[in-house]
Amino acid sequence: MSLTALSPLDGRYSDQLSALRESFSEWALMKYRVMVEIEWLIHLSANEEIHELRAFTSDERDFLRNLVTNFDEHEALEIKKIEATTKHDVKAVEYYLKEKIASSSLASCKEFIHFACTSEDINNLAYGLMLKQGVRNVWLPLASEMVALVSKMAEQTKAVAMLAHTHGQPASPTTLGKELAVFVYRWQRQLHHIEQLQYLGKCNGAVGNYNAHIAAYPQLPWEDISRQFIEHLGLTFNPLTTQIESHDYMAEIFHAIVRFNNITLDFVRDVWMYISFEYFQQRIEAGEVGSSTMPHKVNPIQFENAEANLVLSNALFDCLANKLMVSRLQRDLSDSSAQRNLGVGFGHSYLALDATIKGVRKLRVNEQLIHQELGNDWKILGEAIQTVMRKNGCDNPYEKLKELTRGRENDEVDIKEFINSLQLVPEDKQRLLQLLPTTYIGLAPSLVRHIFQAD
After folding, report:
1. Which of the ends of the chain has fewer CB neighbours closer than 10 A, N or C?
2. Catalytic-role residue among 167, 292, 296, 337
3. What is the DSSP letter of 408?
4. 446, part of any domain
């Protein structure tokens, strides 16, 4: 952790975000650029129609790919030294690779490094690979862990009846597990969408037309060569671009993450409220301090931390989604500076998910208080009673229940006296007389099953 870091992601929270560095650091960007340059060179060498570039041996291909495998911080600093002279980050990678093969059997092939490429051919593929790696291998597993944790709690508490609140006021009962399952179901839909997202790439030259490619080898099917190369990398081929890949797929990714973040934001705020109601208690950890002056407090800091980081993540992803889809004419360079902040957006989202997981693991359901509060609120049966009255043809059922319950404190005696005064068929009256606030939960417990069917 650096105490002089400008961003808390590289300072206070540095240790928590180590998993993201493989995908979103400047070192990662340089490594993926090296990978793309090498794979393009190998791809070209395999084409028998490019007579000036011989086919590589298995050992030579291994030698080149080991440059990626062994790419560490020292190697990245070598590129940075070259960049200090070139003032161009992708050109520095090209020169770096030429130096690496200068004393090898591949020395005569050096001018086919970066062949017919513009820097964006390398960058867009590097960023596509970074995003795919970061989302699928780092962000998604943590998001799935959080969803699985809340799913388990929803199943365990599916029958824990509690007072619902609409407009901040007591409402018809629900169960804790069903309310948790609502979030799980929403998350699951977004995860499914995120898992299906495509990561696009292009390798078609300075303005997207294969101009230089055709000038050098007019007889070659460059669209097919490019498509095969991009699909070999595990990306989806974009056939129509300017100098830059249009970044629409990036906006799709960012907007999907924002939706997932917003559901999580909704969740952590609700949990914060349930903690304030004391429906949830938090496990006390030895040595932990809730307040600097009030010793009794156990603050819901994980959920508050998550809320802040979710808002920050959303702000950045909204900005990037809007910015990256717009570029002047065939390109401007503003996307380059913007894309360097991808990791910041994921960093704040990752911190939020991690904090939420830690917070949920500290929760303990206060069933006694939940049951007591619900059991004492008899007026919430007003909905059930007026609905059965409608069924039985009673006049003005809503208005009569409104007069009985609105702004008043009703107990069991009040409610049952009212029920007994009604002209209802016997089975309906008996069912209402047996109804308790704690049993008026409809299908809530069984609805939880849908989060498991969605899997």
Report:
1. C
2. 167
3. S
4. no
